[in-house]
Amino acid sequence: MKKESFPVSAEKFKVALQYCFPQHGLSRLVGWLAASNNRFISQTFINTFASSFGITLEEAERGEFTAYKSFNDFFTRTLKAEARPLDLDPKSFVSPVDGAVSQQGDVESGTIVQAKGHNYSVATLLGGDPLLAEPFEGGKFTTIYLSPRDYHRIHMPVTGTLTKMTYVPGKLFSVNPATTRHVPGLFARNERLVCHFDTAFGEMVMVLVGATIVAAIETVWAGQVTPPTGKNTFTWHYKGDKAITLDKGQEMGLFKLGSTVIMLMPKNAVAFDENYQAESVVRMGARIGSLTENA
């Protein structure tokens, strides 16, 4: 009897390959090259990348490709002040990044949506302790994907005081839409930083998710945190004279190469605008929702 064969989609095949190659080794190698100040290496990377993704420097503070010392310097480029106007309404909740909305919605039964048919655990995302997920039950979440061509600095959606930050080790799968559709629990499997803030509406969490060839994640208070020096989960606490308050729109961190930001808010804290939906394109500083009357 002839054995039946089943076609495998190109998308699934590309995702399957990610299980096979050395994710961390490749990412660290690319990170080393991206940090190089060698003029030939940096300009080759910059020009090839800009051409491939159609990147121009019209909004950048430095408007010439030759003005950047390394690929990382170019990739994390700052923008002109007027390039991203901040919604100053005290009740507005703004986008922390440039990107595309992957998902947004309610936290239900301790889980959030990754993609159609894929939910994952909030507790696992935040580092494994179920108590960490409790403040967000019935609340809101949103996931924003930063493509390679996007601005890669991360800003505050509202004013908040940092209380703690946790580094969670993990894989380095790509976080592009195709991988999101096919790798279960992707964001709770990848390396990530979990940043907890006290805000006017209660606790807010911003999760900065690492990915394939993301050379590093930095915060403005701790500098470069990934790649880590160890392989264990670790938490830093910021209390008393170590407390750090960041205003709405203020920079809080950056990615060296593309990734994803996930935000969690408690119940009755934030209402997303009607036009803020999956696949929407957002810009840092633009309103995506509002604080509710209960906030």
Automatic annotation (TrEMBL):
Keyword vocabulary terms for this entry: Cell membrane, Decarboxylase, Lipid biosynthesis, Lipid metabolism, Lyase, Membrane, Phospholipid biosynthesis, Phospholipid metabolism, Pyruvate, Zymogen
Residues carrying Pyruvic acid (Ser): S259
Entry keyword annotation includes Lyase: yes
Main location: membrane
UniProt membrane topology term: Peripheral membrane protein
Compartments where located: Cell membrane
Active-site residues (renumbered): D98 (charge relay system), H155 (charge relay system), S259 (charge relay system), S259 (schiff-base intermediate with substrate)
Site feature (Cleavage (non-hydrolytic)) residues: G258, S259
Pathway of action: Phospholipid metabolism; phosphatidylethanolamine biosynthesis; phosphatidylethanolamine from CDP-diacylglycerol: step 2/2; Lipid metabolism
Free-text comment on the cofactor: Binds 1 pyruvoyl group covalently per subunit.
Reaction equations catalysed: a 1,2-diacyl-sn-glycero-3-phospho-L-serine + H(+) = a 1,2-diacyl-sn-glycero-3-phosphoethanolamine + CO2
InterPro entries, A to Z: PS_Dcarbxylase, PSD-B, PSD_type1_pro
An annotated GO BP: phosphatidylethanolamine biosynthetic process
PTMs per UniProt: Is synthesized initially as an inactive proenzyme. Formation of the active enzyme involves a self-maturation process in which the active site pyruvoyl group is generated from an internal serine residue via an autocatalytic post-translational modification. Two non-identical subunits are generated from the proenzyme in this reaction, and the pyruvate is formed at the N-terminus of the alpha chain, which is derived from the carboxyl end of the proenzyme.
Cofactor(s) the protein needs: pyruvate
MF GO annotations: phosphatidylserine decarboxylase activity
EC number(s) reported in the record: 4.1.1.65
Family: Belongs to the phosphatidylserine decarboxylase family. PSD-B subfamily. Prokaryotic type I sub-subfamily.
Function: Catalyzes the formation of phosphatidylethanolamine (PtdEtn) from phosphatidylserine (PtdSer).
Protein known as: Phosphatidylserine decarboxylase proenzyme
Organism annotation: Saccharobesus litoralis
